[in-house]
Amino acid sequence: MPQRIVIVGSGFAGFWAALSARRLISLNAEKGVSKTAEVEVVVIAPDANLVMRPRLYEPNPASMSAPVDDVYRACGVRFIYGIVDTIRTADHEIQMVDRAGVRSVVSYDKLILAAGSRVVRPDIPGLSDYAFSVDQMEEAVKLDRHLQNLASKPPSKGRNTVVVCGGGFTGIEVAAELPGRLRAILGDEEFHVITVERGQNIGPDLGPGPRPHIVKALEDLKVESKLGTSVVKLDAEGVTLSSGERIETLTAIWTAGVAATPLTTQVSGKRDKFGRLHVDQDLRVTSAKDVFAAGDAASAAADDSGHYAKMSCQHASPLGRIAGYNAAAELLNVPAIPYSQPVYRVCLDLGTAGAVVGEGWEVNVQYTGHVAKPMKQFINTTLIYPPNANTADAFAAADPEFDGSDPAINHPSLNRYLQENGIAI
């Protein structure tokens, strides 16, 4: 009976896990290892599109996805359309519901949980009814349509004011992009973009290095930052802050905090404050020997200095490659590859003010403004996209033997991108 690797989720981690597992199986088949014919790789997800989630703050988010069903077919991955809602590790099976609402059970020998994360929506009055988001494709599309429709509404202070709830990485990118989007929609009309951050500094998790550049960019873009306060109530015409201030707005965008897929609660074991499952160096869930976690579902040590993988595609893709490889390796009796990603880089979009590129866990700034912008554009339009449906190309891209870094800087493809677009840095 064939052995089966089941991957839950087809985001960055799930996609690369599937290709990496199939790559190892294929390599061993070429060596004549008989067990390779008995290992099946199955991905279960609502659709076979890789959503460019890091780009959903941009205009036209409906175009921010890439179909991957052809890549799966080329690589021998079986894709099942469905939503997994139950994991039973003791029985080595999951339960799923397909598009027609039919429930079924899928058994596994190795499970890779790569179902991503969602923005946290606390129990704030009016939040579920009146806040927009760029967390998921459908939410970003809803916001985009709303913004496009603003020009058809009667002019008012609320119509021309947008409040971004949260001043972290996503909140900054959303706020910095909004002036350009609103100018294209409202023309010469006056508008206001306001960021509300409960911390005393904008970008609290980014550290002090990039902060002066972020503050200057937001000031240049005329984005107002309200610090040390938070949104405590939303309604159809505005938001109320913890300071008691009320801001009239028809557009409040919630970006504050993320949590791992709730499926992590169905796997016994320790979880971190984001709900991510603790995993060992092989990305195996420490309490479930046949379950691996990757991407935003995994709390994985990135180095030996106490740093853990971030909830970003920069870490999700390598985590997926390692998890897929190791799940297949165990079934093929091949040595595992321990996960390590000691090099960390930040590339933060600042709209028409450019970008900030920094290296290291302390985010030491390397490039800023319009020098950094092409690097961000390269990441968003080239680096994060899947390979074409050519088996050799896809397997080459799925090789887990990466150098531990996001190669956005000094990357051969970046140099080509700059030359093709006539950009000098």
Features:
alpha/beta; globular; 29% helix; 10 helices; 5-stranded parallel sheet; FAD/NAD(P)-binding domain
Account of the 3D structure:
It is a single chain. This protein is globular. It folds into two domains: 3-118 and 259-343, FAD/NAD(P)-binding domain (3-Layer(bba) Sandwich); 121-256, 3-Layer(bba) Sandwich (FAD/NAD(P)-binding domain), CATH 3.50.50.60. It has helices at 12-30, 69-75, 127-130, 137-149, 169-186, 211-220, 313-332, 369-383, 391-397, 412-420, and strands at 3-8, 39-45, 49-51, 65-67, 78-81, 83-88, 93-97, 103-107, 110-113, 117-119, 131-132, 161-165, 192-197, 223-227, 231-235, 238-241, 246-248, 251-254, 258-260, 277-278, 291-293, 298-299, 345-349, 355-359, 364-368. Helix 8 crosses helix 10. The strands form eight sheets. Strands 5-2-1-9-21 form a five-stranded parallel β-sheet. The protein has a five-stranded parallel β-sheet with strand order 11-18-12-13-14. Strands 6-7-8 form a three-stranded antiparallel β-sheet, with no helix packed on it. It contains ten helices and 25 strands. Strand 24 and strand 25 form a beta hairpin. The chain has 425 residues and is of the alpha/beta class. Residues 403-408 have low confidence and may be disordered.
CATH superfamily of the largest domain: FAD/NAD(P)-binding domain
Largest sheet: 5 strands, parallel
Mind telling me the C-alpha Rg? 22 Å
> What CATH architecture of the largest domain do you see?
3-Layer(bba) Sandwich
Tally of domains = 2
- The chain-level mean pLDDT equals 93
- Assign the CATH class of the largest domain: Alpha Beta
Say what oligomer this is: single chain
